[in-house]
Design goal:
Layout: H1 3-10, E1 21-23, E2 31-32, E3 38-48, H2 59-75, E4 80-90, H3 97-113, E5 117-125, E6 130-140, E7 155-158, H4 164-180, H5 186-190, H6 196-200, H7 206-211, E8 218-221, H8 226-237, E9 240-244, H9 252-255, H10 259-269, E10 275-279, H11 281-290, E11 296-302, E12 306-311, E13 314-316
Parallel strand pairs: 4-5, 9-12
Antiparallel strand pairs: 1-2, 3-6, 4-6, 7-10, 7-11, 8-10, 9-11, 12-13
Helix pairs in contact: 2-3, 4-10
Amino acid sequence: MSEFSLIYQHFQHCTRNNPLTQVGIGDDCAISSMPSDCELVSCIDTLVAGRHFPLSTSAYAIGYKSVAVNLSDLAAMGATPYAILLGISLPTKLAQDDWLKPFTQGIADICNRFDVELIGGDTTQSNTLNISVTALGFVPAGQAITRRGAKVGDIICVSGEIGSASFALQQILNAEKSERHNIALQSIALQPIALQPALDLPVPQVELGQKLRGFAHSMIDISDGLGQDLGHILTASKVGAVVDLASIPTHPRLQALPNTDKWQHQLNGGDDYQLCFTMSEQNFVKFNQQFSDKIFAIGKIVTENGLRLAYNNQPIEFSITGYQHF
């Protein structure tokens, strides 16, 4: 299959008739118009098979997640997603209809859900599967939410359950390891089913991110573990934080674990793609009065630098490592 037949056969259905797109797939470059009084927000994420997702991950989930993680970055800025560019290098054995069809369907489904258009990209042959997605979005001028705006006294919030994806990944890796050693551990193999969607099909908090414009002082999406990503806000804002681990929203399956295991998944696991943000107490009250979205207060911003942890208001020590890319 040639590159051009691959593109037209499998990726054309990921396009939309967005009036902002002057030229899309099929030319050397895409050409887009900018909405008036808006700023362009852009991000890129690269996913490598065996590094960012297990080799057993379905083609559909790979396609879906490669877009979702980028839309989560846009959500963390309060942006409205517009379009994506896709670069994919893949082995010849995957450049076949039975893999490409579900892969591109995963891309199409999440693009349709958030009204996002594929406007261009590149494909090539490789020994391993590598996917790189660039996402473009818009935010009203001056209203983007960054990491550097946290203020002393702010409430620290998250948008949903933390640690579920990391727990699911651990069970999958345990099952794969047991299979390699011919160990029959069916219970381990079955455990991820309840939480695997949190790992494979995360829902970027796009609408919530937009609603938080004018309410949140700082924001980040949780991709590398709550501890590490909140730490980025603290560093950028030159403040500290106290977080009560008992306040973190937790799936019942995760809640049943020993505390240290649960905290490891929540603080250091990553792949949650929930939002972590800070806002004044006044804005917290106003937001809850104006919107029905659930947001969860887990701590406060303080003057003294660094992240301090508590459990039911009792100080505790726990090592923050986060996901390590190298």
